[in-house]
């Protein structure tokens, strides 16, 4: 018998699903019992990589690599590390000790090393040093993201193709489960999105704790299947938040944009508190009192008092000049806010102050990239009470992005100018128009069609469920495309095929609407060779 279950397990079936994702512009998830090799709570293919969620013991897996949530001393005495040594044998600890003796210094947070797997089924163990929770005061999420990135990069460096990753740092290191699992999932997606030639074919997220599995499942579905499109042009509907406050971000003119290493630099006229991007930058004071300063006030009023409370909790001593703090976006249309404090202008130190401004822009780019952000909005840094010369700001900020020495995963950078700051608006428009005259593209102010995300599922009688994550307007097309292509495949193989389509609806408030189509495959008979 050649049944749908066996087909999906085959190499041909995996290729089929990958091709169907491209043709139907959707993500196709497999929620099924496909046997021990692919059994999981959630199972789908993204960018030719199978992603599986399992509630299980990581030491039982036979992936090429498993990740151990290690400490900087590679002293495997607690948590996952202790379980790995207990199951794999003391030789794992012995090799770790040898590594530490050769290094003569602890591993840094986010760093990874590998050892042999001992008696375990995997080929190697990647020991990743996750951050210890400090109420967000030491940018723990940034370091966690870096640890996950380094695990994936190490896997490819060693030519391995499969990996199992636990919820790093959410155990004895104390990172909240919601924050830790969300960071891990976003980092994985960001890695697959930016490494288009990745050879990684299988990523398993695994834990024995039910609350961790629930969090992983939620974030997998939201990050991979239900993410809002931000749009890529200036002044489009999807970039503007639904709440128009003091100065709505509407286009005054077509404005030039420049590109560097895939980063599009764009000018916007409006209030930064209305921007709908992944990360917003806030220029504030060292005490992180957000009710002081015009930009901070707009952000505080739009975000709500929770953002000030997080600053007080995570940074009770504030931050020093030229340092950053990271908070959530709360009621803003962004995931995170990067707060920074700049020194006031001093004509006698003008060169060093401008170099520092360049460095801070680069720091924000790097931090946003590690937060898996694709879009970032800057206010005009140094204007206002800090009294930076207006004529120096457009070139300094633009060149800081354009000439950044490092490659980031950011796609869109916006410089946001408040419309009443007419002199600043004039200087930035002139600069961007000059960049356009030098060959940069002129952005469009056409509205992008807003995307609503939807999920459909089709179920087969032997336990296979297909879940489609697609734009609302593409949902029927996604289902019909896969159905048609599979029917064609079955016809080629002379396999009789029949379907019955039923519909039910489930509502997921705030995040997305879900349409569930049960595709019941009634008959998949045998075929002749």
TrEMBL record:
Residue stretches making up the Macro domain: 38-224, 252-436
InterPro entries reported in the protein's UniProt record: Macro_dom, Macro_dom-like, Mono-ARTD/PARP
GO MF, one annotated term: NAD+-protein mono-ADP-ribosyltransferase activity
Biological-process GO terms, alphabetical: negative regulation of gene expression; positive regulation of type II interferon-mediated signaling pathway; protein poly-ADP-ribosylation
The UniProt record lists the keyword NADP: no
SUPFAM superfamilies xrefs: Macro domain-like (SSF52949)
Alphabetically ordered keywords of this record: Glycosyltransferase, NAD, Nucleus, Transferase
Subcellular location: Nucleus
PROSITE patterns, A to Z: MACRO
Keyword Nucleus set for record: yes
One GO CC term on file: cytoplasm
Pfam families the record matches: Macro (PF01661)
Annotated protein name in UniProt: Protein mono-ADP-ribosyltransferase PARP14-like isoform X2
Protein source organism: Octopus sinensis (East Asian common octopus)
Gene: LOC115229286
């Amino acid at each position: 018998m050649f049944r749908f279950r066996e087909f999906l397990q085959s190499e041909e079936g995996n290729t089929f699903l990958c091709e169907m994702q491209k043709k139907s512009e959707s993500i196709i998830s497999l929620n099924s019992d496909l046997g021990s090799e692919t059994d999981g709570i959630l199972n789908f293919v993204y960018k030719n990589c199978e992603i599986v969620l399992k509630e299980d013991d990581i030491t039982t897996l036979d992936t090429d690599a498993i990740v151990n949530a290690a400490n900087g001393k590679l002293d495997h005495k607690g948590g996952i590390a202790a379980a790995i040594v207990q199951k794999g044998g003391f030789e794992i600890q012995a090799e770790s000790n040898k590594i530490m003796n050769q290094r003569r210094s602890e591993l840094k947070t986010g760093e990874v090393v590998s050892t042999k797997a001992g008696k375990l089924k995997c080929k190697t163990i990647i020991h990743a040093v996750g951050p210890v929770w400090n109420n967000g005061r030491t940018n723990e999420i940034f370091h966690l993201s870096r640890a996950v990135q380094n695990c994936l990069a190490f896997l490819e460096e060693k030519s391995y193709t499969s990996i199992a990753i636990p919820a790093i740092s959410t155990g004895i290191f104390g990172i909240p489960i919601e924050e830790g699992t969300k960071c891990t999932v976003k980092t994985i997606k960001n890695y697959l999105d930016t490494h288009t030639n990745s050879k990684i074919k299988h990523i398993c997220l695994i834990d024995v704790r039910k609350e961790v599995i629930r969090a992983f499942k939620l974030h997998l579905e939201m990050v991979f299947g239900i993410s809002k499109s931000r749009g890529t042009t200036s002044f489009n509907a999807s970039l503007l938040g639904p709440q128009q406050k003091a100065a709505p971000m509407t286009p005054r003119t077509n404005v030039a944009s420049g590109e560097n290493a895939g980063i599009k630099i764009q000018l916007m006229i409006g209030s930064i508190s209305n921007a709908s991007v992944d990360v917003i930058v806030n220029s504030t004071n060292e005490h992180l009192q957000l009710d002081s300063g015009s930009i901070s006030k707009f952000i505080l009023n739009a975000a709500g008092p929770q953002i000030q409370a997080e600053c007080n909790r995570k940074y009770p001593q504030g931050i020093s000049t030229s340092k950053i703090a990271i908070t959530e976006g709360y009621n803003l249309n962004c995931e995170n806010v990067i707060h920074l404090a700049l020194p006031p202008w001093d004509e006698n130190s003008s060169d060093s102050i401008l170099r520092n401004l360049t460095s801070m822009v680069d720091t924000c780019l790097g931090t946003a990239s590690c937060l898996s952000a694709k879009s970032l909005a800057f206010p005009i840094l140094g204007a206002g009470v800090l009294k930076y010369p207006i004529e120096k700001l457009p070139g300094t900020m633009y060149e800081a992005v354009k000439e950044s020495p490092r490659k980031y995963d950011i796609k869109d950078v916006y410089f946001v100018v408040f419309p009443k700051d007419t002199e600043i608006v004039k200087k930035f428009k002139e600069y961007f128009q000059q960049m356009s005259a030098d060959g940069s593209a002129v952005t469009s102010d056409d509205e992008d069609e807003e995307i609503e995300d939807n999920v459909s599922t089709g179920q087969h009688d032997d336990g296979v469920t297909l879940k489609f994550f697609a734009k609302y307007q593409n949902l029927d097309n996604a289902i019909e495309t896969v159905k048609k292509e599979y029917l064609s495949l079955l016809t080629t193989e002379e396999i009789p095929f029949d379907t019955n389509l039923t519909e039910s609806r489930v509502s997921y408030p705030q995040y997305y609407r879900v349409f569930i189509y049960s595709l019941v495959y009634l008959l998949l008979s045998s075929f002749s060779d």
